[in-house]
Write a structure and sequence with these properties.
two-stranded antiparallel ribbon; two-stranded antiparallel sheet; single chain; Jann2411-like fold; 4 strands; binds zinc ion; about 5% strand; disordered C terminus
Length: about 190
Amino acid sequence: MDFLRYAERSAALVNAELPDEAALREHLADRSWLHRSVVTDDVAALETFRAELRPVFEASQADDVRLVVSQLNDLLARHPVTPMISDHDPTHLHMHVANRAASVAELLIGEALMGLATLVCDLGATRLGTCSEPKCDHVFVDTSPNQSRRYCSDRCSSRANVAAFRARQKAVRAQHDGDAPAAAAAQ
Ligand SMILES: [Zn+2]
Ligand SMILES: [Zn+2]
């Protein structure tokens, strides 16, 4: 189990659009051994779970530690985890958070919750966030050393920078326009 990666995957899960099985397989592009287990029920279960998980990121963004903890504990109770040792890569035995009988949805939900619970215990409960770019609703995990992350992606960060630059230019232009009559009157 790589909990930090699982926590980051939980953000990717909230951000993903998963309308059908094909989209879910696409989301699992780097985990081809799961593809043939994907069924319609996984799509529905993950849709519900993503809606349950978003408020955890929002509570963390609001620095509401108690709410983050209580929401995660509620979700852990609702989605119990049964781990197992996996041998899908026989040269690298490792723990999975769900056993062989678990559905793909149960596996992803277990990973997300164990990843987030571990992150909260190790790095604190305010490491999750929602993107500051006004038109973006993506969430993220902030692993930066000084906990300074504000955007879900470089794309949103540069989009926000461009918007701020344009706003400054507009303010400067507005000021010049305001100056014009005074300058004319002075002549
Ligand atoms: Zn594995
Ligand atoms: Zn964003």
